[in-house]
Batch of 2 targets.
Target 1
Amino acid sequence: MTAPPAGRRHFDWSWVVIGACVALTVYIAIVPLGFLLWQSFFTPQTATKAAVFTLGNYAEAYGSPETARLFWNSIQFAIGTSILAFVIGTGLAWMNERTNTPFKNLFFALSIIPLIIPGILFTVAWILLASPKIGIINLALKTWFGVEQPLFDIYSLGGMIWVDGLHYSPMAFLLMSAAFRSMDPALEESAMMSGANVFQVAWRVTLRLTWPAIFATLLILFVRAIESFEVPALLGLPVGIQVFTSSIYQAVHKYPSQVGLASAYAVILLLITTAGVYFQSRLSSRGNRYATMTGKGFRPRQIDLGPWRWVTAAIFIVYFLLIVVLPFLVLLWSSLQKFYAVPSWQALQNLTIEPYRFILTYPNITRSIWNSLLLALGSATAIMLVTSVICWIVVKTRLPGRWLLDNVASLPMVFPGLVLGLSIMIFYLNFDIGVYGTIWIMFIAYITRFMPYGLRYNTTSMLQIHKELEESAQMSGASWWTTFRRIILPLLKPGLVAGWIYVMIVSIRELSSSILLYSPGTEVVSIVIWELWENGQYVELSALGVLFILALFVMVMVAQWMGRKFGVKE
Amino acid sequence: MLRVEGLYTEYPNEKGEIVKAAQDVTFNVPEGKLFTLLGPSGCGKTTTLRSIAGLERPRLGEIAVNDRVVYSSAKKVFVTPNRRGFGMVFQSYAIWPHMNVFQNAAFPLEVGDRSHSRQQVREKVMRVLAAVQLEHLAEREATKLSGGQQQRLALARALAMEPQLLLLDEPLSNLDAKLRERMRFELKRLQRELGITTVYVTHDQSEALALSHEIAVMSEGRIQQTGTPRQIYERPINSFVADFVGSTNFIDGSILGPEEGDNRYRVRTEIGDLSVLATESFRADEKVLISVRPEDVELSEARPEAAVNVREGIVDQKVFLGEVVDFQVKLGGRVLLSRQHPSLRTPIGNPVFMQLDPEKCVALRAV
């Protein structure tokens, strides 16, 4: 940033814009965190008693054998989930990038599935599929093969790992595909020319070279698993398998609510995720040591699997059934019933669209859709604009402390959604500026939570804008604000549009922060789904779920179409 | 030794269109010779090399080394690259960053079909490392090597398994100019000393001329001309070869008739009638293109004794390049480029005599 010339007559707005953006970032990223820490050291404040300093929350949180179990559960769950997701995702990525498996264009769908099937619906679908009592798979096995004991019990640690692992496997697929793709194919080809067979190439070269990416992927999956909320809440809580996130939720929802205890749990969860994200970013930057200089960008030679390619195709189709087709079909089936019934000839006679009628006339539905849309549009727009300024400061200026700003803006990445919701709740309970209980508090939570994504999208495209483009605008006599508006923003457009769409979609499906912040009148769609689940209204939930998935699907398609139109590469 | 016959390779590009990368490529490389595939990017030279390596599966043709067929469309033979036993150096070197120098070079001996004792591996690796002067760096991490050292390591790795055939894919293109020149000598010395049959791919004509026993110039998937470096340079068979290998002056003309001497013709051109050489026979009135290298355009301030192909022009522009001076000489409407020793100092605007040696004026069929 070139400092404005001294003695300039009219007021320089650039500093106002920059200052406001910086202040906003620091405020939303740091303040709630501080309050969370503060709160964890105090007793609950009640009408008769002021909060006093205590270490009791930590004593309770970490002193009891209960916590040891909690910790152990969380770790088991997170490690199991990340390994399952990783193995599936890596296998698929390898099949897609390096072999001649048929139906490869279906693989593209893997990148959009996590966007169109929210965690809560995926979990509910798997309950309908594999719960011991009503699970279709269990009942089918019983009728067809006379298996008396239900074979699958989704309400178990194994079931939780299965559902969450499947849910995160597309993410592992994307990360590992990128790793395979960024590798110079000549590294593998030269091993082959040296006489190594397929197995030796995969084991001694491909795997070793992708090792940093493997480790980084495992870490990020671990972080995602340990902060995931839907699966532990829906599958773990009913049978008393508690992890950190579900314990935080329970502590808040107890009467009287134990916010201090929840904060103490949240702090340790935060420490774990922070460590995970820290090592992951260290690893990614160190991964440059292995960054492979590429030659001509020859398309990598695909391994001819011969007849085995039908086996890999079968694996892929089974996977596709498990992750998309079965969950969606089971929701669709149950949405066409009056009362939930497993598929049978008789149930088939009773198909009805009653649940859809119910949902469309559900008292909160219009408002919640409106709220969801408003929040998604608002947070996406606000995030992209603010982070474009932040990222301009970080990338283009020599301002001292700009690296700090980058880190501060990326800080919310380590917040599990539930912890973020908790800290924002605590903060605005204590500082009553009139946002608590309104839609604004959720707006703040969304902005905080998704700011790092916006920053990343903007940074990628900002790095491609050459400094001289801006300098020549200045030389032409443009002020900072004009330069930013007329040069930077238009050039950022592809990144802005892509990031805006992405933030929109993730905002619409947000649940784990909203669940602690909503109040009557400010429900969003995912909250309505949650409420229906709590009330046991499965068929109505399914109807809403089907509509929700279809709506998200349309949005993603529109987004991709727009992305192509604006030349966004992803 | 290496026999490539009627090779045809195609592949779909990113848009799914079929690229005919190599069409009807045929050549033979005798034992111990260095054969170069030369051409601009996209001419199919790398695809041809990769087809020999087995990294690309051709559609048609046959590839054999010492009568061992490694690919044949007719006999339905395709030997996978790891069973061909050819050494290859990639453009990006493809040095494995997770291994040190020794481990990189030892890899082919560890994974190959023939098993070697630890002692044998050590001996063989140290021998190839010594051959490329890297033995003192054996324990160094591969990522800590300079570009030139990486290039030599890639070569050592390719030689470690004592291959029948060595394939080099633009091995010098990632080096800086000075180093490239030195490595050129190194490579030539090594190839001649080991006597290893080599196929070399490059787009750099001076590299090709300097290293090869024989060169095939390729364009648009086809071999245009095969010959020794001297044949390629002095007797190009078409305008593509003349233009791509070295720089040249093209002069349009039409045949007047044969002249005394072998393959000599008289040609009417825009700068008057010239005596030229042809590598094929022409009839009268055929359109031709005459190629003259700048160094074959002799300039002098005094009228030369010989009367053949002498013209008088005016110095239009000159560029001093150190060891040579490039003159642009205006002759009527034409400007010809001439490369001269710096001792010629004729100022711009002065007249100068230009002599074109008929032996060096090559008539090509105009297309």
Target 2
Amino acid sequence: MGSKDKALRSIIKVLLAGAFIGILITLISVAGYHAAGSPVFCMSCHSMKDVGATWKQSQHKQFACIECHLPDSNIAVQVAYKTKAGLNDLYHETLRAYPASISISSEAREIADGNCLRCHSSTVQKTFMVEGGGDCIKCHHGLVHGTGKIAGGIKVE
Amino acid sequence: MNNKKKLLLAGLGMCVIVLAAVIVQSFVIQPPTTIKLAKLPAGEYDPAVWGRYYPLEYESYKKNFEMAPSPTGFGGSVKEQKSIKEPEILMNFKGMPFSKDYSEDRGHPYSLEDLMSSERVTPASVGSCMTCKTPYVKDVFKEKGWEYAHLPLSEVVKGAKHPISCASCHDPATMKLTVVNPAFIEAMQRKGIDVRKASREEMRSYVCGQCHSEYYFEPKTKRVVFPWDKGYNPEQMYAYYEEKPAGFEQDWVQPDSQAKMLKAQHPDFETWAGGVHGKSGVSCADCHMPYQRSKGQKYSSHHVTSPMKNVQGSCRTCHTQSADWLLERVKTEQNNVFELQHTAGLAVSRAHEVIGKASAVATADKAGLDKARELVRKAQWFWDIVAAENGMGFHNPDQVMNTLGRSIDMAYKSVETANKAAGTHY
């Protein structure tokens, strides 16, 4: 065997290994990204237990959290937003710095409004609600997460 | 290993530790979502003992010692005479103890202290005055029934060591909500409601309603009775009193007008019950004892005061407007109510004065004067049932405005009737 062959085989080996690692990383990232988009993952945080419980009783329980709470945009925008929101959540969850009842920020409100329209735009697009730059949640705010009250209150055991 | 490698390794190690700590803190260790039951013995009335087992609730209860005004300028927990802002109180309650001492109430922990230091309490005061001031009333009622009501207060109160506290609303063995005031239980029974079968949601208002209500002392027995047989609104309660229940006709006689008067007492529960929040199933505790968190753990605040001290927790659970906007809204409502309340109070004062002057006319028509007295009695009831309430109208703004409007109308009708009877022009 000549040294030329040896070099070629080395290159092929490196390429194959690289491709393998690349595929592995991609698979892990995609799987991780998907797992992190599941309601189960969202509700694994203590601060999300109440909103999770109200969502489960709502008319929109067939939709995952991210279907309303991630921007209706391309994957790059979604990944960027999820990273930002995730870091914010992780910070507050770790320090236990969250209020008794969580309310939506104006940025998150715009995102959720956009997702309302993703499905419901044909119903409302020709009405004052959309033409006037309406805010869906302003009127429909109790739709998914109710009034923030948990039936039965805090259990005593 | 060279130093560079060591440094890299140490850095990497630190990152792993921090990451592990964050993961453990966020996903593994979770704050408790339930409260551990401590079975306390019946008759344990010391809140500090309860506090050993329910520390978060007890810490918030202790905030009731705070004496602070409400951000709206009405209510709050600072002990000051109401007659400073509303001098009509002195005229309208002339001849009875509320003209001597009528101050804004302080928090629950002061209930016994403020009862015993009140100028309204005299050696003649009876045991029923203690009914709402201490959970110890449960023992007294068990032992003596309503007998305690006509015994001297100074005697009955001896056994009361603790003010309104945990046991006033909680069963020590189960922590379930419970009511201790027998008058409330009986009044609800007469309405066909068995309080023992009430839902938790209902109990979250009943525990407050057992005391934050209108009542009178039955003349002979001195037992506490709630005038709810016909309904909760001012007209229905007045109609109940018009039938002279158990011979009860009046609390006192106003000396100027000689009218037989009723004194209204803090009808917070009744006012709320017909208001938009009450009708929508929002309980007293929802606004006055909102959920809070300590290190992530959720608990009900036991700092029972004006919800406007915590708009975020009290209002914004349901209302999406900003805290400032909500506070401003409540201020507007309460300012409107106060203006009309003051107007009504002054109109009633004028009626007492005019009837007094008209009565001095020897030729005055007696029946006409009696009619004027009847009108001022009702006018004052309609003013007082609003003025004695703790929410400055917030618990039911439209009903309160209606009540005050009618009070003003009746007060001027009383003036007109008295003048007509005596042929005067006061």
